[in-house]
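Exercise 7b. Backbone tokens:
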């Protein structure tokens, strides 16, 4: 849980600074690119977490990669993470930062698990329905899981709504197991 606390603390500080500078979207876009690059590039990810490299070396490498590509605010923030030995939490910090920006902009990401690829028409219908119910701008993240058989599983924040056929069948099985036969 320390990762989550660290991530929230640093994300909150960056959010406050970016909000004060009225530059949330730019910082979010840049931070997204950095986080994606770190996640997809094993060498960069290992370099950030390598205990044998001192902070001067890490800052030098980041400088070569990003100094002319990022806003001063985000670049200085990344340097600060290295100074404070928090660079290993970069992905978690990004995720917390994105969540803060989404909340500020009244956006909500809903993870949808479906047994098949959802049509654009159905995605639009689902998005509209969720926007009406939740009174937020909805962004769907769809994952296909053929094991579901049918129905959908929605993850909204820390809540899970399991409307899958698989879950329904499991509930019936439990009901049958607890049924007293006379």
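Sequence design result:
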């Amino acid at each position: 849980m320390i990762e989550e606390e660290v991530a929230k603390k640093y994300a909150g500080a960056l959010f406050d600074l970016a909000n004060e500078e009225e530059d949330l979207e730019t910082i979010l876009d840049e931070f997204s690119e950095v986080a994606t690059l770190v996640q997809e590039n094993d060498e960069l990810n290992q370099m950030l977490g390598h205990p044998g490299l001192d902070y001067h070396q890490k800052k030098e490498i980041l400088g070569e990669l990003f100094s002319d590509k990022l806003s001063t605010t985000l670049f200085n923030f990344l340097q600060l993470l290295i100074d404070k030995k928090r660079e290993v939490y970069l992905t978690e910090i990004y995720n917390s930062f994105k969540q803060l920006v989404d909340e500020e902009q009244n956006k909500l990401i809903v993870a949808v698990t479906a047994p098949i690829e959802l049509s654009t028409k159905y995605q639009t219908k689902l998005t509209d329905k969720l926007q009406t119910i939740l009174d937020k701008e909805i962004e769907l993240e769809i994952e296909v899981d053929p094991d579901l058989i049918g129905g959908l599983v929605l993850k909204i924040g820390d809540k899970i709504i399991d409307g899958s056929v698989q879950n329904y069948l499991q509930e019936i099985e439990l009901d049958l197991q607890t049924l007293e036969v006379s």
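Instructor comment: The chain has eight helices and four strands. The chain has two domains: 2-103, 107-178.
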